[in-house]
Write the structure tokens for this entry.
Amino acid sequence: MHLPISISLLTLLPDLFGFSTEVLAKKSCRVQPGDPGFPSVQQWSQLSAQVGGRLVQVVPSAKFCHSLPAGNCTQDQWTSTTFRSTIPGAMDAYNWEQDYSSNPPSLCFQNGTTCDQGNVPLYAINASSGFDIQAGVKFAAKHNLRVAIKASGHDYLGRSTAKNSLLLWTRNLRNISFTGHFVRGGKDYGSAVTVGSGAPLNAIYTATKAVGKMFVGGTAATVVAAGGYVQGAGHSAFSPLLGLAADNALEFQVVVASGDIKTANEFENPDLFYALRGGGAGSWGVIISATLRTYPIFNATQHVVVVFAPTNASIGTIMTLHAKHIFDWDSKRAGQYFYAINGGSQGNFAAFSTYFPNSTADDAAAAMKPLLDDVQAMNFTILSQNTTVALANDLVFSPDDQLGVDAILGSRLIPADAYRNDPVSIGNSYTKLLELGAAQIIGHLVAGGKVAENANIDSAVNPKWRTAKAHVVAAVGWGDSTPLSVVEFIKESMTNQAVPILANMTGQADSGAYSNEADVREPNFQTTFFGGGARYQKLLQVKRKYDPNDLFIVAAGVGSEDWDAAGLCRVH
Ligand SMILES: Cc1cc2nc3c(=O)[nH]c(=O)nc-3n(C[C@H](O)[C@H](O)[C@H](O)COP(=O)(O)OP(=O)(O)OC[C@H]3O[C@@H](n4cnc5c(N)ncnc54)[C@H](O)[C@@H]3O)c2cc1C
């Protein structure tokens, strides 16, 4: 019989070749502290010397704060993403720094008296050049180390931190340069900006404004355009006018798993170029810089209105009205963030922040009027309403983001057809999500228009973006004192209850989601984030070509199904 023969052979093999089954098993795991083969102090010192002393030991953000002269961070520092981005071990949603599942849990809370390392990397290379990244990649590959890549630490899926890893930290790669004519393969793509993979959005908005240009970026201060943002797709309030960030990416410089720097564009390494535009953050290599299309600067009007919605049912009613009016702004190519905020005993709020490119304040107010008339006709109170006219860059510029929280997300790309066919069901879903305990439901009208028109671009962008009208996110948070069993309950509720409600909103059996703002436990992420089927197979092929040993594994990323949740041991 086949089976007993295999077993007897396996038991003999270790003796024959001089190593034990334990070592064989370990071979499929990353090398961790205490394992044979973990780099010695001397080897770490050599790496440090190679990168000019920029190898640093990493600690959780709370421990970093305790080490400051004041003995702690101020609350303003703790919640400032600009401040947090200077801490190598910090994640903005710092629940990702915790290892809730180890036994005992390995935790480090904001004002905790004890502090364990959790899921925070061991060492980081604070890179100042592509060479530093190359050195780190080669060192990690040679010693079979777990690698994490981080630019800002914004990631809502925790993909920029990893237990027992070497962190390749690109925050200080901040170059920004412009060209009037980006030419490759004899093709002139027009004006473009090349940004380092540490340059935050607010720095790029400032720089583009100074040269009379605009680019496709998000509404955030410290999100890094050439980091996770563009690899996920990258949406903007101006996407209905200009497309997604990935649609506007022209070239990348990337350190791949071999340690080589590759140029990826339409002509050179086009398969890598395909994957880097929408194929998911952190799975392909370490981006050093990206070149993004720029546009002549333009004015826009931001219209913000806040509505009081006493009950969860009233949020549902308002969001049904909104769903009926969501096509009102198409001709203006407006983008919009629309919020349902759970105010608890104070009642709820709905808010709509709409960006009208090349429009006056009067145009914007007129475009919003039909929705607001309907809202008032239902006796809801408008608490405030205002408009700001400014350069587009200034409207989406933000000096800082406020985080430093424990939070997770779940999301879906809601097709235009769902809004057309069943606005009432969309409104009802909002009520259900609030009743489930969602703190906020954040809608992003950042699709349609140019995003739909760009369906012909051959990239890994989830095709659901091309038929979507909006990206809707449910957010839930908790405090450090929340019992761990409740934290787990919250996570399970997100995956098993909130996300199915969002999926139901789509009216599709194979609904899609934006991989950068989503539930990391998404059960069928290959389809939900990346389109599944042949599209996912193509991404796997690119992965095998450029990263044959899976050096760059992130949760719910391409190839991650072969690894355990921590990315430390192969499961297949
Ligand atoms: C306040 C806030 C506002 C946001 N606004 C928007 C928005 O308007 N539009 C939008 O589309 N998204 C938005 N996002 C989501 C954002 O796109 C994601 O959080 C994204 O992952 C951030 O990328 P990052 O590189 O800045 O973050 P990080 O946490 O540093 O990294 C995120 C992922 O990218 C990988 N990565 C980082 N740097 C590199 C690199 N150099 N090379 C390869 N991989 C790298 C990491 O490994 C990780 O997987 C927002 C997030 C926050 C917190």
